[in-house]
Design a protein that fits this description.
Elements (H helix, E strand, L loop, with lengths): L6 E2 L9 H10 L18 H18 L5 E6 L2 H13 L7 E4 L4 H10 L4 E4 L24 E5 L1 E2 L4 E2 L10 E5 L16 E5 L10 E6 L16 H6 L9 H16 L2 H21 L5 E2 L11 E6 L6 H13 L2 E2 L10 E4 L6 H17 L2
Parallel strand pairs: 1-13, 3-4, 3-5, 5-8, 8-9
Antiparallel strand pairs: 2-10, 6-7, 9-10, 11-12, 12-14
Helix pairs in contact: 1-6, 2-6, 3-4, 7-9
The chain binds pyridoxal-5'-phosphate (PLP).
Pyridoxal-5'-phosphate binds next to helix 3.
GO molecular function, one term: pyridoxal phosphate binding
Organism: Astatotilapia calliptera
Protein name: Phosphoserine aminotransferase
């Protein structure tokens, strides 16, 4: 079948709003009458200063970030933060220990990295598979922990928290890389939030860190200077050359989110889109199978198998081939779990999702 356009359901780097790409294209050679591209602009120039300040003020507005929080634009990706978080925060208390919730690949990696810098306590019984969030009544939080860490959306396994963990006053840290600005969040409940931009708020290269001011200045002495939040906060993220173009793209995406109703409007759309897919899975009589508990199914990444619980690989290949003929790309599940994964970030529209839903219904009909 001929397709008119490509729909990108990739998990990241992911689809950007076409209007953002067009604006970036229009401004590529001559940004705002400067005669040069953002790609060529000094990070110490007043023009770039305006870009980074605008990006920060849009973020503050969209997330209602309280004044006692710093917003940083850093390099090293989400993985860089797996190191930066313990390097900066595990020394908050003498014991140098941290509580981790491990509900998927990304929190597991973060916990492993933190073990280099202190004691890590996984607060719940070990999970056999990453398909649920253990009930908070089974958690053993350590009151002397420097912080409690969790990943609010596990991109590989499609497990998302629909609540904010209660920590009895211990600093809460969250990796929101794959659901950042997909729904409103009460920043005041957190000590630190971080998110790589390449899923919901821009392109690869920049990672946002939102950190409460009183947590700055506790870095371990071996913390590399570029990873030290206090240094970066004091220098407005300009200790060294920041990822200028990625920050600029983020400013365009944030403007797009604002013009489209902000995080509350994103949440409504994301609920609608994900329900459209989960409803088909639920009504398919076991033809499509999502292994994740209904209470924590992600609105951002919908993983499912085709044909049977453990997936029929031939059918899954046929499903992916058919999707690709219809212009729907990057639906293959993460290599560690297989199957299919549809990522429905903010820039994926209702129409895009409907195209996938229609295809899933048609494929089901043809194979029943
Ligand atoms: N955290 C989450 C939730 C992710 O999905 C990813 C990557 O997909 C990462 C962290 C790692 O990000 P990066 O590749 O930018 O290091």
């Amino acid at each position: 079948m001929e397709h008119k356009q490509t729909i990108n359901f990739g998990a990241g780097p992911a689809k950007l709003p076409p209007s953002v790409l067009l604006q970036a294209q229009n401004e590529l050679l001559n940004y705002s009458g400067t005669g040069i591209s953002v790609l060529e602009m000094s990070h110490r120039s007043s023009d770039f200063n305006k870009i980074i300040n605008k990006t920060e003020s849009l973020l503050r507005e969209l997330l209602n970030i309280p004044d006692n929080y710093k917003v940083l634009f850093l390099q090293g990706g989400g993985s860089g933060q797996f190191s930066s978080v313990p390097l900066n925060l595990i020394g908050l208390k003498e014991d140098r220990c941290a509580d981790y919730l491990v509900t998927g690949t990304w929190s597991a990696k973060a916990a492993k990295e933190a073990e280099k810098y202190g004691k890590v306590n996984v607060v719940h019984p070990k999970l056999d598979s990453y398909t649920k969030i253990p009930d908070p009544s089974s958690w053993t939080l350590n009151p002397s922990a420097s912080y409690v860490y969790y990943c609010s959306n596990e991109t590989v396994h499609g497990v998302e928290y629909n609540f904010t963990p209660e920590t009895n006053g211990v600093v809460l840290v969250s990796d929101m890389s794959s659901n950042f600005l997909s729904r409103p969040v009460d920043v005041s409940k957190f000590g630190l939030i971080f998110a790589g931009a390449q899923k919901n708020v821009g392109c690869a290269g920049v990672t946002v860190v939102i950190v409460r001011e009183d947590l700055l200045g506790h870095a371990l002495k071996e913390c590399p200077i570029v990873l030290d939040y206090k240094v970066q906060a004091e220098m407005n993220s300009l200790y060294n050359t920041p990822p200028c173009f990625s920050i600029y793209i983020m400013s365009l995406v944030l403007e797009w989110i604002k013009n489209n109703g902000g995080s509350a409007a994103m949440e409504m759309l994301n609920k609608q889109k994900s329900s459209m897919i989960y409803d088909i899975i639920n009504a398919s009589n076991g033809f499509y199978v999502c292994p994740v508990d209904t209470a924590c199914r992600s609105r951002m990444n919908v993983p499912f198998r085709v044909g049977k619980k453990e997936g029929d690989e031939a059918l899954e290949k046929e499903f992916l081939d058919g999707a690709s003929k219809r212009g729907m790309i990057s639906l293959k599940g993460h290599r560690s779990v297989g199957g299919i994964r549809a990522s429905l970030y903010n820039a994926v529209t209702l129409e895009d999702t409907k195209a996938l839903a229609d295809y899933m219904k048609e494929f089901l009909k043809d194979h029943q």
